[in-house]
Amino acid sequence: MSKPSINWHERAALLKIDGRPFIGGRRVECLSGEQFDCISPINGKSLGAVARGQGADIDAAVAAARAAFDDGRWSRRPPAARKRVLLKFADLILAAKEELALLETLDMGKPIQYSLSVDVPAAARCIAWYAEAVDKIYDEIAPTGPTALALIQREPMGVIGAIVPWNYPMIMSAWKLGPALAAGNSVVLKPSEKSPLTALRLAELAMEAGLPPGVFNVVPGFGHEAGEALALHMDVDAIGFTGSTRVGRKMLEYAGRSNLKRVYNELGGKSAFLVFPDFDDLQRAAQTVAGSMFFNQGESCNAPSRVLVHEDIADEFAALVAAQVPQYQAGDPLDAGTVMGALVDEGQLRTVLGYIESGLQEGARVLAGAKQSREASGGYFVEPTVFEAQPQMKIAREEIFGPVMSLLRFKDEAQAVAMANDSPYGLQASVWSSHIDRAHRVARALRAGTVHVNQYDEDDMTVPFGGYKQSGNGRDKSLHAFDKYTELKTTWLRIN
């Protein structure tokens, strides 16, 4: 017997929002008493009040995290014991999947089907993966010779400040929490003011799973207040930040102004999608680039927004991509059939519309979209948009963070590589060719953290995520993420 479909609008009407910070194992009042409205991008209406955390709240959260770290209630537990708690945490995330998915969709506008099938399972899988990994990592003995014994050990770093963006609130939080908590650190998480709700609920679930008080704290608030205070804090040992390159620069500045804390930035992208004339299935390439570009309303740092196509197939490929657009028209995010939802807020809507206007003014040719949609809903929706552009145009160079794709023509392989690398970013790329030597050659030449070949966005927790150049430093996911949240200690013993 099939499960009856869920009326998500009814669920939303019954939802009660608790926007208070989570510090020291419990919900507490914001010390200033200030709040802000959490606005849903679906209809422009308030979901409820959220605490406007500021420096004093960050001080309290860091103090709780430091006390928890120093007394060893988590940091000195055996890895297998931490593993058990984190596995239960992952199970509780899955058990609360409908509640978490609804919060995510209401808060940032993504379709409910993807919040359910992608975001919640991915967050749980990440926590579980690091839980399973932590008791399988061995320390080292250096080959120093017979008169000495040099032990090289990983130790938890201390208090980690995690600052995450609004586009994948749960997944980005899990990418920080998984390795940081598994390694034995304490964490203070500052979610985006645009999508703070699931982070606060995750903290409650972590406590329910058995995480000791003070180990995981969440302070909602604005970036220039709570985020800046966390990044400047003298008792925070490292910052894991995901967001814009502009704010990533500030994170490095804040580290220099404070205690030289380590800063790991995962920043923007303008990923290139290269299609060569020898590829034998242009329809699949067109379906892939449209699906990847318009997923999450284009609000993805790795969205393939620069599509570089050989001039011999450019007209055919442009027509194939434009033919994909009707199936990605924005719809009600609480409708289970919707595949593209709302932009996160009015500011982002204005930003995306501004880029579209820039493309029109610079002479880019509209192949599809280029307009606001669903205006009567009160929400923030834009049509999936495809331009044929020139490399120097603003829409082809800057990260838009919306459903706007630029198609660019190239003459040969050398020009394609040069165009792809002519960007301050280097997060991801994709090469489409039926010649294995070309695929390898071009993949090696591209300056990007991940290069996909004849596909896009296939992924796994076992591989690192991050980029070259102004796309950031360090890596999320995989065992390499432990490098960000642990110290290497050498203990040297002389053997007489």
Structure at a glance:
The protein has 496 residues and is an alpha/beta fold.
Question: How would you describe this protein?
Answer:
- The chain has 496 residues and is an alpha/beta fold.
- The chain is built from 15 helices and 23 strands.
- The chain has a seven-stranded mixed beta sheet with strand order 14-17-18-13-12-20-21, with helices on both faces. It has a five-stranded parallel beta sheet with strand order 9-8-7-10-11, with helices on both faces. A three-stranded antiparallel beta sheet has the order 5-6-23, with no helix packed on it.
- A hairpin with a 2-residue loop joins strand 1 (22-23) and strand 2 (26-27).
- Helix 4 crosses helix 5 (112-134).
Task: Kindly report how far apart the N and C termini lie.
Answer: 74 Å
Number of helices: 15
* Shape estimate: globular
Assign the structural class, choosing from mainly alpha, mainly beta, alpha/beta, alpha+beta, or little secondary structure: alpha/beta
Report the major sheet.
7 strands, mixed
Total E-strand runs = 23
Global Rg: 23 Å
Percent in helix: 25-40%
Mean pLDDT: 97
Residue stretches low in confidence (pLDDT < 50, at least 5 long) are none
Strand content: 15-25%
Order of strands in the sheet with most strands: 14-17-18-13-12-20-21
